[in-house]
Write a structure and sequence with these properties.
The protein is 26% helix and 25% strand. By secondary structure, the protein is α+β, with helices and mostly antiparallel strands. The strands form 4 sheets. The protein has a 7-stranded antiparallel β-sheet. The protein has a 6-stranded antiparallel β-sheet with strand order 11-12-13-14-18-19, with helices on one face. A hairpin with a 5-residue loop joins strand 15 and strand 16. The longest helix is centred in the middle third of the chain and has 15 residues. The termini are far apart.
Length: 409
């Protein structure tokens, strides 16, 4: 039984069901199936230290109702667990108790769990069951255990290997977020249904990101909805990455396992690879993913031209081709919001800042900002140039600067 009383069929019986009768929870769908529809993304971050309730992000996302089709929506909150801010919070979807027990066996072997709890949910009349079992675990990885004989992995890489092993090898289980001081709340439904299902009004955080619709070119399913997350990275994406194949090969060669059947998953892994593992500054990583043309690079000053050319050569497989606008969240080392549009701006993105300078906003449409802050100052970024804001510090880049401003060359 699921936590809300619906039944989650076992794997064998589940696969015997007609396609139209299946409700994909943690179990991956077997095929790709294109569904028409737009995407809505919205995010906000506290610049002055105040906490922001979930009602606000709900208002921002649900006002863009024409952008969704009811097949998927989700939210991620950062600065959420002050009591356990130094623990990794692994949040899961389970199809059944068998999958949950198998995951707990793996967690008990490789981590020290400080506490675990059922994620609060409540019935929503318009949301059709079954629902997954949704559970979270606060833990620390056991570095003394290593992973598959490797003893040289740090905490973060151990968590990544743990999450990816579970997603790839344990039937009926999916780790949907695995970072510190953050969690993802998502599922198969409209944005207002997901907000009500998780009762986002009970949560407050320093930053929220959100998405409506579902993964591009994928069947609608609970675990595949945005945000897509690994460690503390969370990504909400509007658009379609046509370079998915080559981008997927890059992250897989670097040890990531792609199990969610969507291009957005690759984008999340790319941010982790380029920024955390390779140490690129955020503007340089953004340039690698949305680079300027060689004609534009040729007009740069000599030092910028040298860096831009190196990034295009060294990270040619990281180039995200196709239309996109993305919101990226992270909690380590600071809670940070990144907003980036493709180099041709084929998908909409608008920024905002409250009149008192205390909150920054990003959204697909201006109405999403005006619904919560009618007096906000708004602007648009340059193509391929990120807006970067840090909780408690302010907006470090507004997205209209030189691509390498502030980057030490």
């Amino acid at each position: 039984m699921t936590e809300n009383g619906g039944s989650a069929p076992g794997r064998t019986g589940f696969r015997d069901l007609p396609y139209s009768d299946r409700s994909y929870l943690a179990t991956r769908p077997p095929e790709l199936k294109y569904q028409m529809g737009g995407c809505g993304i919205a995010g906000l971050i506290s610049l002055d230290g105040r906490l922001i309730a979930g009602d606000k992000i709900k208002s921002m996302l649900t006002i863009m109702e024409e952008r969704e089709n009811g097949l998927g929506s989700g939210y991620a909150c950062y600065g959420l667990f002050p009591r356990n801010k130094d623990d990794y919070c692994l949040q899961f979807f389970f199809d059944d108790e068998v999958a949950k027990e198998r995951v707990e066996d793996v967690l008990n072997e490789h981590t020290n769990i400080s506490r675990d709890e059922k994620v609060f949910t409540q019935p929503v009349k318009s949301l059709r069951p079954p629902y997954p079992i949704i559970w979270r675990y606060f833990l620390q990885p056991r570095t003394d255990k290593g992973w598959n004989g490797r003893m040289d992995l740090g905490e973060e890489d151990l968590i990544i290997n743990l999450a990816m092993h579970i997603n790839a090898e344990i039937d009926g289980a999916m780790c949907i977020s695995s970072g510190k001081d953050m969690a993802v709340f998502k599922g198969n439904g409209f944005s207002y249904e997901m907000a009500d299902f998780y009762d986002l009004s009970r949560y407050k955080g320093a930053m929220w990101i959100s998405h409506s619709r579902f993964p591009t070119n994928s069947p609608a399913w609970w675990a595949g909805a945005h945000p897509l997350s690994i460690l503390d990275w969370g990504v909400c994406h509007n658009g379609e990455i046509t370079s998915y194949g080559v981008n997927k090969k890059l992250v897989e060669m670097s040890g990531y396992k792609c199990t969610v059947l969507t291009d957005t998953e690759v984008v999340a892994y790319m941010w982790d690879l380029l920024v955390r593992k390779h140490g690129l500054p955020i503007p340089a990583a953004a340039f690698a993913m949305a680079p300027r043309t060689y004609e534009e690079i040729g007009r740069m000053d000599p030092e910028s031209k040298k860096l831009a050319t190196w990034l295009r050569f060294a990270y040619r497989e990281a180039f995200l081709n196709g239309p996109f606008s993305i919101l990226v969240g992270r909690s380590q080392p600071e809670i940070t919001l990144i907003a980036l549009a493709d180099r041709k701006k084929l998908r909409p993105m608008i920024m905002g800042r409250s009149k008192d300078g205390g909150v920054a906003y990003c959204a697909s449409e201006e109405c999403a900002i005006r619904i919560v802050d009618p007096d906000a100052e708004t602007w648009v970024t340059n193509a391929g140039s990120p807006m970067v804001a840090v909780a408690g510090r302010g907006i470090l880049r507004n997205g209209t600067e030189h691509p390498f401003k502030g980057v030490k060359i």
